[in-house]
């Protein structure tokens, strides 16, 4: 069973999932990166451009999902280098430091709580998030066009694309598309009819919504919402 809560780390979410009951899990693109606990190992989940299918390994897995654009500053690695990848933290950081953090996480009663403590420790030594990235996410999540957003932020198109790659793992158009998908899913899960969901989340029509959902998640919207 999947459960999540708001983290003590600003903008982050702490989640845990128990042993699967059969089949594969499906992690959908959301513009975020995660610090993962998987059977005692610390991993980093890069930003996804498509659904990531999880395995059926036993045991509890946990994660801290960072707000879009914040993880690269905490981890010291550009997001595009981890796009669509799951990487051991020890491949990015010195092994001794990772072992120390893994031991700290393992000492907690709940791996999710231990992992949150590790994330808070990492954040304490990291620079503050770039407020421009927060404004960029807010504008694109509100459905603002990329060109207008660049003008509002005082950035040229190439500079905006370059900064987006480093912070989010992909350019602003892809980020906007992913955030639009998440807006649509929130509406659809709340019972909003698909045609109205498409209109309110910024799609041209219901057919456009259906195409994007299938391309980004691998499933039709109705199947994706099935319990």
UniProtKB/TrEMBL annotation:
Range of residues in the leader sequence: none
Coiled coil region boundaries: none
GO BP, one annotated term: regulation of DNA-templated transcription
GO molecular function, a single term: DNA binding
PROSITE patterns the UniProt entry points to: HTH_ARAC_FAMILY_1, HTH_ARAC_FAMILY_2
Domain of life: Bacteria
Keywords, alphabetical: DNA-binding, Transcription, Transcription regulation
All copies of domain HTH araC/xylS-type, residue ranges: 130-227
TM ranges: none
Pfam families: DUF6597 (PF20240), HTH_18 (PF12833)
PANTHER family: BLL1074 PROTEIN, HTH-TYPE TRANSCRIPTIONAL ACTIVATOR RHAS-RELATED
Name the UniProt record assigns to this protein: Helix-turn-helix domain-containing protein
Protein's organism: Streptomyces doudnae
């Amino acid at each position: 069973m999947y459960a999540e809560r708001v983290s003590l780390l600003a903008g982050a979410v702490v989640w845990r999932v128990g042993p699967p009951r059969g089949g594969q899990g499906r992690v959908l693109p959301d513009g975020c990166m995660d610090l993962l606990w998987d059977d005692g190992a610390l991993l980093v989940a890069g930003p996804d451009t498509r659904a990531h299918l999880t395995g059926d390994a036993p045991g509890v897995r946990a994660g801290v999902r960072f707000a879009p654009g914040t993880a690269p500053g905490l981890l010291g690695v550009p997001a595009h280098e981890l796009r669509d990848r799951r990487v051991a933290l020890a491949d990015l950081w010195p092994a001794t430091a990772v072992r120390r953090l893994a031991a700290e996480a393992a000492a907690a009663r709940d791996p999710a709580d231990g992992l949150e403590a590790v994330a808070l420790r990492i954040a304490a030594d990291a620079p503050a998030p770039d407020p421009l990235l927060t404004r960029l996410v807010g504008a694109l999540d509100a459905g603002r066009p990329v060109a207008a957003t660049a003008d509002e932020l005082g950035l040229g198109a190439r500079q905006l694309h370059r900064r987006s790659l480093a912070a989010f793992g992909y350019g602003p158009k892809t980020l906007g598309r992913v955030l639009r998908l998440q807006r649509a899913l929130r509406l659809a899960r709340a019972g909003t009819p698909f045609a109205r969901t498409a209109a309110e989340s910024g799609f041209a029509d219901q057919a456009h919504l259906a195409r994007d959902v299938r391309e980004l998640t691998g499933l039709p919207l109705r199947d994706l919402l099935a319990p």
